[in-house]
Amino acid sequence: MSIIQLAERTGFAKSYISSIERGVQSNPSIQFVEKVALELDVSVNYLILGEKNEEPLDEGWIELVVEAMNSGVSKEQFRDYLEFNRWRKKQDKK
């Protein structure tokens, strides 16, 4: 699928899609990722991580991520939380 076709199908500007493809823009919105995944008939996980066998994110996870984004939680804060949670689980196993 060409950038022009993807732009027409998703409603996003060709220049925006091109900037993501070239790595100029590295922080696409969740709405962009969802629309592109839908048009390409792949999961959001596959689009982001390249993992084919993962189940697609369910609506609850998508809503939670959107809520976090809208409330001002940065990616760095979210990553910090995930790292803390992994550390805590390791501590619980000891």
From TrEMBL:
Q: Name one GO molecular function term.
A: protein dimerization activity
Source superkingdom? Bacteria
Q: Name one GO biological process term.
A: regulation of DNA-templated transcription
| Matching Pfam families | HTH_3, SinI
- Domain called Sin: residue spans: 48-86
InterPro entries from the entry?
Answer: Cro/C1-type_HTH, Lambda_DNA-bd_dom_sf, SinR/SinI_dimer_dom, SinR/SinI_dimer_dom_sf
HTH cro/C1-type domain ranges (all copies): 1-47
Protein's name according to its UniProt entry = Transcriptional regulator
Query: Where does this protein come from, organism-wise?
Result: Halobacillus andaensis
